[in-house]
Amino acid sequence: MATDTLATISLSKEKQSSLDRFLAKGFPTNKWEEWKYTSLKSLNDIEWNWNTSEHSVNSAALALENTCEIQSQNGKMTLIGSLPQGVEYLDFASFAAQKPEFMQAFNERNPILDQNPLYDLNDALASSHQVIWVKKGVKLEKPVLHTYFASVSIASAIQIKVLIYLEEGAELTWVDDLASSEDSKSILSNYVQEIWVSKNAHLTFVKTQDFGLSTTHVDHTFIFQADQSVVDMFTFSLNGGLIRNNLHFYVDGQQVISNLNGLYVPSNNQLVDSHTVVDHRMPNSESNELYKGVLLGNSTGVFNGKIFVRPDAQKTNAFQSCKNVLASDKASMNTKPQLEIWADDVKCSHGTTTGQLSEEALFYMRSRGLSLDAAKTLLMLAFVQQVIDKVEIPALKESISSRVVAKIQQALSV
Amino acid sequence: MLSITNLHARIGEKEILRGINLEVKAGEVHAIMGPNGSGKSTLASVLAGREDYEVTEGAVSFFGKDLLDLAPEKRAAEGVFLAFQYPVEIPGVSTTNFMKSAVNEIRKYRGEEPLDAVQFLKMFKEKMAYVNIDQSLLSRSLNEGFSGGEKKRNEIFQMAVLAPKLAILDETDSGLDIDALRIVAEGVNKLKSPDNATIVVTHYQRLLDYIVPDYVHVLYKGRIVKSGTKDLALELEEKGYDWIISALVD
Ligand SMILES: Nc1ncnc2c1ncn2[C@@H]1O[C@H](COP(=O)(O)OP(=O)(O)O)[C@@H](O)[C@H]1O
Ligand SMILES: [Mg+2]
What we know:
The complex is a heterodimer of chains A (about 425) and B (about 250). Chain A is α/β, with parallel strands linked by helices. Chain A contains seven helices and 19 strands. Chain A has helices at about 15-25, 90-100, 100-105, 115-125, 360-365, 370-390, 395-414; strands at about 70-75, 75-80, 85-90, 130-135, 145-150, 155-165, 170-180, 185-195, 200-210, 215-225, 230-240, 240-250, 255-265, 270-280, 285-295, 300-310, 315-325, 330-340, 345-355. In chain A, the strands form two sheets. In chain A, strands 2-1-5-7-9-11-13-15-17-19 form a ten-stranded mixed sheet, with helices on one face. Chain A is globular, with a radius of gyration of 21 Å. The relative contact order of chain A is 0.10. Chain B is about 40% helix and about 30% strand. Chain B contains nine helices and twelve strands. Chain B has helices spanning about 40-50, 70-80, 95-110, 115-130, 135-140, 150-160, 180-190, 230-240, 240-245, and strands at about 1-10, 15-25, 30-35, 55-60, 65, 80-85, 90-95, 140, 165-170, 195-200, 215-220, 225-230. A six-stranded mixed sheet of chain B has the order 6-9-10-3-11-12, sandwiched between helices. A four-stranded antiparallel sheet of chain B has the order 2-1-4-5, with helices on one face. In chain B, a hairpin with a 2-residue loop joins strand 4 and strand 5 (about 65). In chain B, helix 4 (about 115-130) crosses helix 6 and helix 6 (about 150-160) packs parallel to helix 7. The longest helix of chain B is centred in the middle third of the chain and has 15 residues, at about 95-110. Classes of the chains: A alpha/beta (about 425), B alpha/beta (about 250). The interface of A and B includes residues 368, 370 and 381 of A. Adenosine-5'-diphosphate binds near residues 36, 38, 39, 41 and 52 of chain B. The site of adenosine-5'-diphosphate (ADP) has 12 residues of chain B, from strand 2 and helix 1.
């Protein structure tokens, strides 16, 4: 078994206990409720290098006007350029030393980790734990760009762990440009982000996932929100062999706004699994979730959206919508909205749809001169545009649009 | 330009067109009338290339080409245009974006250079005047939430943009009040030239006061049972269809 080699790695006591937790469970299989459609069992068949020192260079990184750039190459993080005033980039131990009051909250954070052993694997093996710290009232106009790239010549597991901390009234746009090379050997990309958004702070987080087919990416994003904070989260799953996104919002304040936007366009035999949780633990807050998918080729999509409204979370407004187009009869989509509401005075709604492109619309468009493929492409792009249009960075919006179009066109041409 | 001979078409087991013959020459306006369910929309759809209908017999030639052999988009590129009786709503696609794609696909088919944004702007502005349509309507999702009149005007706007050789208007008058009807008819008339032809499908004579036909045909149970000049339309208005139908020996 591939995980056997893990036993030989020597670790600190805490990391060893994380590793033991992972080893006790192993990679999830579809016998697990939360992994019903997304087995990682085949990862057991690969001889993983658990600690790569290979270098990689990303030549196709996104061009954005940014405040600064943080590069992660095969898991190694480097800050490029200088940080603006009021922002710090430091390791977790130094951060903890400077912020003892935060550490208490951090230790009590209680994320929902059942059936998520890859979080423990990340904790055990991540070589660094970096923190981006935006100080009180600091508002960054331009985004911080995180370019994450992987390319290896022997199968490697890559761990990245970051913590983003916004103090009161801070504003940050974080762009996660995640990619791996098309011709790389197998990659297990395992990425943990813990994000703290203090009172009145505003975070916009745009994540693009554009991996090669040999990449399995598992994403864990935990967002803790305090009073009156706003988070606009975007997850664009554009390409990759298998992508599993675990996105958890913990609404720990009042008048909080949490917006979850997602878009996935798997093709071939790709799989994109979006597991989201919005945990309303305080009253008077609002969450809006909009996920859209176009499923091409033989691909599989999974959406599991949980909304918890705890007994204290009266006057919660929680909305969820997941809409999908099956662009081929070999594609499939599995949706499971899960609302668990313990408070009585709340407004919640959810809706999932999975359909095909309208034949009527296709004929109408063809009768005006569009080829069948052009008509399909236009309809599919129109279908997902609503999500793309919410991104407020024009260059990023265009880049996402054109990658979606290219992906659709490529899938239609086979 | 268009020559239909002995056209039969069916959907499932049901034969809907049962031997249509029609000749249309450049510069002509033909009206096709007939009671509901007689096959008018089916004829229009078959000409535009809708695949739900199976052509079982007969031929259609368009400028000497076998029209039935062409995909719908090829027919459009060859110059066929159908204004739908029920224009389809296309969420998320604006009329302008849709027309840009359509025009440039057709230009590609014809081996012409694509138009750029400035050229489109100029062209759209010119064509908008034909049907008195507003830019704000053209920026909205195509047909979504449009009133009946807006949908029909939008169809004629698209016709103006695509400048077809053969325009087939399927019940373009239905659901229009008299002002909207006049605007639509004026648009169609302005687009008329000695090089193109129009087939107007309607079951009211009303539209023909504005778009004056050279020929009027009565379609009944999938056949053209009577043809004449515009006077036939007036006669139908006065006497209904029964006198024609009862004279038929089936
Ligand atoms: N998709 C269809 N499936 C079954 N029957 C159809 C379909 N389309 C048309 N028909 C039938 O064909 C006949 C002709 O319809 P249509 O061409 O729409 O007539 P018109 O336009 O003259 O009112 C009608 O009896 C109608 O019910
Ligand atoms: Mg009809």
